[in-house]
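Need a sequence for this fold. Nothing fancy.
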């Protein structure tokens, strides 16, 4: 049995609405992935403190390699969840190639 997730550590500028949404995302991912859930990384405008009234929340869902094999990206009006495996984080793509820029989210 997996323990409940610890309190999320979020930047002060994240709105209460987005905090509630991220709590729901964390709870759902913990229930769905259990011990395969390694971390969640907030990215995009919410992470940078540049949201607008139309902004969604972008979250990388970091999973074990096995957990990531069973997961696909999900998009909605409120949140985009992008699965990424631990192995993907261990290899940084070469500058200028596809996805190299997303590594800044993990810096």
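Here you go.
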């Amino acid at each position: 049995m997996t323990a409940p997730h610890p309190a999320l550590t979020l930047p002060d500028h994240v709105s209460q609405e987005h905090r509630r949404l991220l709590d729901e995302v964390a709870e759902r991912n913990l229930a769905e992935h259990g011990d395969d859930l390694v971390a969640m990384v907030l990215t995009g405008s919410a992470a940078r403190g540049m949201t607008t009234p139309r902004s969604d929340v972008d979250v990388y869902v970091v999973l074990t390699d096995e957990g990531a094999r069973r997961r696909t990206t999900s998009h909605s009006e409120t949140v985009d969840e992008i699965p990424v495996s631990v192995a993907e984080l261990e290899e940084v793509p070469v500058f200028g190639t596809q996805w190299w820029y997303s590594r800044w989210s993990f810096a």
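For context: The longest strand covers residues 37-43.
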